[in-house]
Amino acid sequence: MGTRNAEQGAEGEAASSGPCSSGSTAHVLLMSERRLDFEREGWVSVPSLIATEELQELRVAVGAPVPSQGRGGIRSLMKRFPAVRSLAVDSRFRDLASELLGATARPVKATLFDKTPGANWKLPFHQDTVIAVRRKVDVSGFGPWSIKDGIQHVRAPASVLSRMVALRLHLDDTPIANGALRVVPGSHRRGRLSASETRTLRQEIGEVTCSARAGDVLAMSPLLLHASSASERPTHRRVIHIEYSAAELPAPLEWAA
């Protein structure tokens, strides 16, 4: 499969899929294959979606987390940075999200992740099951609740999470040595997983490293088991992580974005 990359240590080699020519039959077929790959594997890679000049503008726009605070990221990017808000509704991102989820896909959350000498974090295998909403309302299937940066967050059911995709734009080259994402292919099809189910699936299926170059976008389901290691030589490993949803929340719940 063209979008799957099982890196064996070739540092800097990015996952790739073939180029497509807009308007052609080949383009339509490739788009269909990409959605099939996403539905089967839980992730796909889109190389060189953003050009070098635009990447530099985004690096400047978002800056970097404050090292002294030990922070590894910034939440609420669409509210903080107009450049990220524009990126989230850019046709390249909206079209990709719509291709994978359907025409109703819209951005609902954006976060910057970075690994620096002051915040060289790592994460074990997990799923992204928490969404940001406008206010706390008790609705069956949603919970527990938490507040992050003043915004209500709640654990969502698989019926909502399965209609979401995260588009992860790499602002820096991200080989395995720089904390590239590692995933368990197909794990998103199992719904929300317990800790024991997570361990079992990782042993049964194994993991794939999703290395990337600056400008590449990794699309992944929030239900996909994923992890990342600390960077071996931390300078920056910046990722703009924009979440899209094709699901409407049950009233009176509303997306925060």
Query: What is the CATH architecture term?
Result: Sandwich
Order of helices and strands: HEHEHHHEEEEEHEEHEEEE
Sheet with most strands: 6 strands, antiparallel
**Number of discrete domains:** 1
Kindly state the percentage of residues in helix.
25-40%
Give the helices and strands, then pairings.
Layout (H helix, E strand, L loop, with lengths): L24 H17 L1 E4 L5 H11 L10 E2 L2 H4 L1 H7 L2 H11 L4 E8 L9 E4 L3 E4 L11 E4 L2 E5 L2 H4 L2 E7 L10 E3 L11 H11 L2 E3 L6 E4 L5 E3 L10 E7 L12
Antiparallel strand pairs: 1-11, 2-3, 3-13, 4-12, 5-7, 6-7, 8-11, 8-13, 9-10, 9-12
In brief:
This protein has 257 residues and is an alpha+beta fold.
Account of the protein in words:
There is one protein chain. The chain has 257 residues and is an alpha+beta fold. It has a single domain (43-62, 70-245), classed as Sandwich (Jelly Rolls), CATH 2.60.120. It is built from 7 helices and 13 strands. The radius of gyration is 17 Å and the shape is globular. The model is unreliable at 1-29 (pLDDT under 50).
